[in-house]
C-alpha cells in the first residue's frame, strides 16, 4: 500500500506532515519519531514502539547456547537453599 504525500520543508528545515497522514499513522503532537536513512537514499519514519519491536531478538544470537532454557527463579531458589544449608 504505497501512497505519496507532498510535504513542505520550511526555511528552518522543518517538515510538515499532512494531517491526513498523521491521523492515518496515529502520530500525535509532541511525539518523538525516528527518521531512518535507507541505503538506497530514501527515508523511513518510525515511532519508538516500532523501533523497539524491530530490535527484539537482535542480541539473541550472541547468547550462549543452552541445552535447556534457564529458569532464573528456580536458579535463585536453589542458590538461596544452598546458602541456607551452609549457615
Short characterization:
With about 90 residues, the chain is an alpha+beta fold. The protein has helices spanning about 20-25, 50-55, 70-85, and strands at about 10, 15, 35, 45.
What features would you describe in this structure?
- This protein has 3 helices and 4 strands, in the order ββαββαα.
- It is α+β, with helices and mostly antiparallel strands and 87 residues long.
- A two-stranded antiparallel ribbon has the order 1-2.
- Strand 1 and strand 2 form a beta hairpin.
- The protein is elongated and about 70 Å long.
- The termini are far apart.
List its traits.
87 residues
List the helices and strands and how they pair.
Blueprint: E1 8-9, E2 15-16, H1 19-25, E3 33-37, E4 43-47, H2 48-55, H3 72-86
Antiparallel strand pairs: 1-2, 3-4
Please tell me the overall pLDDT. Answer: 86
Taking the alpha carbons of the first and last residues, their distance comes to 66 Å
Shape, per Cα inertia axes: elongated
Total of DSSP H or I helical runs spanning 4+ residues: 3
H and E order: EEHEEHH
Oligomer: single chain
Beta percentage is: 15-25%
**Poorly predicted parts:** none
Structural class: alpha+beta
Strand order of the largest sheet: 1-2
Radius of gyration using CA atoms only: 24 Å
Number of strands: 4
The main pleated sheet reads as:
2 strands, antiparallel
